[in-house]
Amino acid sequence: MLTIEEFKDSENIKDIFIAIGASFLILLISLTIIPFFIMLIPCPLIVLTVKRGYLSGLAGIIGTSILSLIGFDIQLAFIVFTYLMLISLIMAYMINNNYKPSQIIIISAIGILIFVVLNTVFIGSLNDMDIVTNMENTLTNVIDSELDTLAKSGISTENIDELFGSLKKGLDLFIILTPSILTVFSFIFMALNYICSTAALKKLGIKSIKVPKLYEFEVPRTAIIGIAVTAVAVFILKLLGFKFYNELMLNAYFLFTTLFLVNGIAFVDFNLRKRVNLIIRIIMPILLIGILNLTLFYVFLGVLDMIFRFRHRAKQV
Q1: What was the pLDDT predicted at 220?
Q2: Which residue from 43, 107, 53, 42 is spatially nearest to 80, judged by alpha carbons?
Q3: 42 and 87 in contact (C-beta within 8 Å)?
Q4: Distance (Å, whole) CA 310 – CA 317
Q5: pTM for the whole structure
Q6: Using an 8 Å Cβ cutoff, are 104 and 194 in contact?
Q7: CA distance 44 to 143
Q8: Is the pLDDT at 68 greater than 80, yes or no?
Q9: Model confidence over 78-90: pLDDT tens digits?
Q10: CA 6 to CA 53: how far, in whole Å?
Q11: Does 128 have pLDDT greater than 70?
Q12: 296 vs 74, 198, 300, 302, CA distance in Å?
């Protein structure tokens, strides 16, 4: 535990200011250039907390929140404060106590879901609005604006109506999948936070931690039981006339598909790790999935790897 005298130490104060500056810089980058960077704000404060203790970490969180309040507004300051409190301190505590990487990522992902709920309630009550309805209205307005632009360009009404129908279906699907999308991105961002933080801690010589690699990710065979239980539960809910049966089924499908997609990417990465440059290994799945639309190929590989445990067998050879 850090004492008051140690807290006042000039080196500790210096580290606090560096962490605050780094976190606020990440915030500025996320608000101006790369939006998803906002999820990486905790990294400098996680490193600070592990190195200097929870009192210093708390000081860094408060400092970053105050800068957010001065530079922007109370809503953003509240979002930054709750996010950093939930993620920085929780992740730092688990790193200090040598939790497994999977435990840290899962618990932190739950923390970020709590953060989303808290901020949705806070912003909704502050502005007296329904967040989901507001999001749907915003996306609908964007679609309408784009369709108006197309109408002015001379495209036939029939084609515009057809396009509107497709976009509306896509919007409805996005709204339905919001819970599972939030869950998936929570795990992704917490994994990135953990990897970046542990890499920094190791690089700075603060704590020797094995940084997890993508190719080490494996879906256990017990996932089959999870899928079976989920399928039975959803079927029972259908028989009982559960109102949101279709929405629940789509979210479950999305989550399991994403799980096997990541497993497939990890399987390919495992086989390429000794022969292909890291940059190419990062770019390749992005191109194959984003441009060539080979998502199902990776999902298929992920399912096969889970069933037959190809990587486990390769390690034994």
Answers
A1: 82
A2: 42
A3: yes
A4: 11
A5: 0.77
A6: yes
A7: 38
A8: yes
A9: 888 988 988 898 8
A10: 10
A11: no
A12: 44, 32, 6, 10
